[in-house]
Amino acid sequence: MSHTTTWTAGSQQIRIEKDLQVPMRDGVKLAADTYRGMDDKPRPALVALSPYGKELQAMALTMPPQRRPSPMWDGCIEAGDIAKIVQEDYVHVVGDIRGSGDSEGEHIGNYNAGGVSLGQDAYDFIEWVAAQPWCDGNVGMVGISYFGSMSVLAAAERPPSLKAIFVSGGHYDFYETTYHGGIMWLMPRAAREGRGGDSGWAFTDRIKSRMLEEYSEAELKELVAERLKDPDIAAWPNMVHTLNYPKHHEAWFDIIMNDLDGEWYEERNPINLADNIDIPVWLQIDNGRGWTIDGTIELYNKLKGPKKLDIGPSPPMQSRPWIEEHDKMFRWYDYWIKGIDNGVMDEPAVTVHVEGSHETSTGNQYPTKDTEYRPLYLRPRHKLSEEPELMGSEHAAPDGFFQAPLTVTDTVHNIRWETAPFAEDTEMMGTGAAHIFAEIDQDDTNFIMRLWDAAPNGSRQLITTGFLKASQRELDEERTTEGNPYHPHTRKVPVEPGTINEYVLRLYPFANTFKPGHKLVVELSNNEPMEDEHNALLPPDAFHLPVGRPVTHKIYRDAEHPSRLVLPFVKSSN
């Protein structure tokens, strides 16, 4: 039964209606709460949908926003600033998706790809909201991360009452949500199950594993045994536990069991659905979110209607409850939903915060400036240079490092190279590539590369990263261009130990100006430290699955093996 209450803070009063039942076309009812002004006039509505639980989102009214690092930061309070939304004369509608929280129905597999389309449910939810007496028939959507992905899935279904969307920090390529360059990222488990500062999904017994639904017990036993042959999986307790007790970890079990890209990840990939979106879309993301920037730019380029792209400053982990970017969102919705001519469409389509200079660059496409790809070669004595190595392998001995598995060591080893101090402002913007000629003594490893802007005083800021599972080094030659490699990640080709292979890492989009005296420092490892200048800002589980075997890496950088970075230098305006 729904019921109505009132929330008061100072002079602001909000009418709250709890536990509304929203019917879907198949008879399932989704649970929703509404927050609106005290009078009965109809208003436009902003809808927020996720599996994180509408009661958790209600804490935006009672808990001050927390920044990382903070023990009170909860990554799942993402539906937006309720009081601000109501103050701006919108109705805030927060719902639990199918199978989660107080909603009916089953949620099967990652993003419910094994059940009813989440976009279909969003369509029905939005049209129900638009028909209510407290709504004027116009709807937008609100929320970061999962909520943002739901906005894109909803827009692709074209509900008539959805007039525009503002998407902050959404996830698009679902394989890339969890596997970066083929290397498993553990953060999605925190978001699903509640670890490392996240409350996780509002789980019910109706959230189910797609693998458990579609395979017999005997088939699953064989598939699990095969997955446990991966030394990285077998060495990590959480992986072993999940594979042996999957009913405790339904969604995470499906992800672990599907470590290659394919139909399960692509069938409802929002980027694949972008051709269906014709309403105005503003995409917002912050520097430092790597793979998420990649997907955001890819989605932006596919959209054909009115659109904006806004890339903000690092660090990316915003406040929780999420309160950032609301002023931009209201300008967008005031224009497209309320019909207020506030000039938002007279401004450049693309806005990029450039790290280092802390300037804002604008244009009509990304990158916003003319760029050219130029190489920086790995050279002796850990140097990066515009000049290639002239010596052969008999004289230019390879660099290298040995990494023992983290089961027996606390030390993560890396090898680094750096430029000379820049003499003048040097700006880069766009994607990049790292061509690494390497020999390993195992059949697989991780290559993890991080690029830093190092200041003369010793401080440094991470500017971009690249990841590649050695066994997934295959390139799609038709889609790969200079400085922009593309890996299909659809099969594994084990490495023959002792052979030299070229590994091409995709460096995620970034924008940075190296000031005079600063250096570009690049680090290569096969694991990553739990804490450093960047990782200390992230939740504890925001790292990648470590390599579970001892590996010796030799990095060749001679005339026959021109290991190098290929970076997007902004062309001089002189």
TrEMBL record:
Domain of life: Bacteria
Signal peptide positions on this chain: none
A Pfam family per the record: PepX_C
GO MF annotation: an example: dipeptidyl-peptidase activity
Entry-linked InterPro entries: AB_hydrolase_fold (IPR029058), CocE/Ser_esterase (IPR005674), Galactose-bd-like_sf (IPR008979), Xaa-Pro-like_dom (IPR000383), Xaa-Pro_dipept_C (IPR013736), Xaa-Pro_dipeptidyl-ppase/CocE (IPR050585)
Keyword Hydrolase appears in the UniProt entry: yes
SUPFAM superfamilies: alpha/beta-Hydrolases, Galactose-binding domain-like
Domain called Xaa-Pro dipeptidyl-peptidase C-terminal: residue spans: 330-566
Gene3D superfamilies to which the protein is assigned, alphabetical: alpha-amino acid ester hydrolase ( Helical cap domain), alpha/beta hydrolase, Galactose-binding domain-like
Keywords, in A-Z order: Hydrolase
Record has Hydrolase as a keyword: yes
Protein name: X-Pro dipeptidyl-peptidase
Organism this protein belongs to: Enteractinococcus helveticum
Organism classification: Bacteria, Bacillati, Actinomycetota, Actinomycetes, Micrococcales
